[in-house]
Design goal:
- By secondary structure, this protein is mainly beta.
- It is about 15% helix and about 40% strand.
- It is globular and about 60 Å long.
- The model has no long low-confidence stretch (mean pLDDT about 95).
Length: about 280
């Protein structure tokens, strides 16, 4: 099952996505957090159906949820970044207002930055409250998986001078408004092993990243366990698991208005967004 959020005629809805059609199951649930807690209850809901071309995709989470992102979780990406892998997972947060859905523009102000970058990531969506869970049981708290493009503002993120030292500006680099695509939906009960999925990014059809989630340093289960040791995870929370090597900044590539970015993850689908300059 593939469950997500969409907008139709100004109304936010919950839907089951299949073969270019979305079936409205909003009436069955209190909200999207309720939906990812018990997605099987959407199976027999006989709601109105729409072509996905008729709707606006929304990020498969809510404004009350948190997006956790793991950094430097592929060895080769850490090497291309010339940063030593940290002793424990390095996790940062994204604000809900940072997110956009499938087909929505990656929108940024060129007067603020000239170096927007792509990052292909598998993301786990939490289905049950999780606190201090072990890696062995962590996947039991995952409702399903989605795709996240952890766009990064490199000229603001890298090389911030503090006295004689250079530091990373995680806020400016990762939390620019309406720049982080996520979706198109949550794939529920479709992923047997999150550590064996091909993951690819393309810009205007040219492959930039091509790897497998088996190359993660810390598994999805390890990351869910770690974050739950710091804070309780709630249904609808998203945990992005890091990006493989091949990001643009180390190839002297940046995204430009008009370019289309595709992030594909095996057994989930493809997240497609076009870059535009914000007004």
């Amino acid at each position: 099952m593939r469950i997500g959020r969409f907008e139709k005629i100004g109304s936010t809805r919950i839907g089951v996505f299949e073969d270019g059609v979305v079936r409205d199951v909003t009436a069955e649930f209190d909200d999207f957090r309720d939906a990812v807690s018990r997605p099987a209850d959407a199976t027999d809901v006989d709601g109105e159906s729409y072509s996905t071309e008729e709707i606006t995709h929304l990020p498969p989470t809510t404004d009350n949820n948190t997006v956790f992102c793991a950094a430097l979780n592929y060895e080769a990406h850490a090497e291309e970044s010339d940063i030593e892998v940290p002793e424990w997972p390095l996790v940062f947060l994204k604000l809900p207002r940072t997110l956009v859905g499938q087909g929505e523009p990656i929108s940024y102000h060129t007067r603020v930055t000239k170096e927007i970058d792509y990052e292909a990531e598998l993301a786990a969506v939490i289905g049950e409250p999780a606190r201090h869970v072990s890696p062995d049981e962590a996947l039991e708290y995952v409702a399903g998986y989605t795709i996240l493009n952890d766009t990064s503002v490199r000229d603001l993120q890298l090389g911030l001078q503090v006295g004689d030292d250079e530091m990373l500006d995680w806020f400016s680099g990762k939390a620019m408004q309406r720049t982080t695509p996520v979706g198109p939906y949550v794939a529920v009960n479709e992923i047997n092993d999150p550590q064996d999925l091909d993951i690819t990014s393309r810009v205007d059809g040219e492959t930039m990243q091509d790897d497998n989630t088996g190359m993660m340093i810390r598994s999805v289960a390890d990351l869910v366990s770690f974050v739950s040791s710091r804070v309780r995870l709630e249904p609808g929370d998203i945990l992005a698991t890091g990006t493989p090597e091949g990001v643009g900044t180390f190839q002297d590539i940046q995204l430009n208005p008009g370019e289309t970015v595709e992030i594909e993850v095996e057994d989930i689908g493809t997240l497609v967004n076009t870059v535009e300059e914000a007004e």
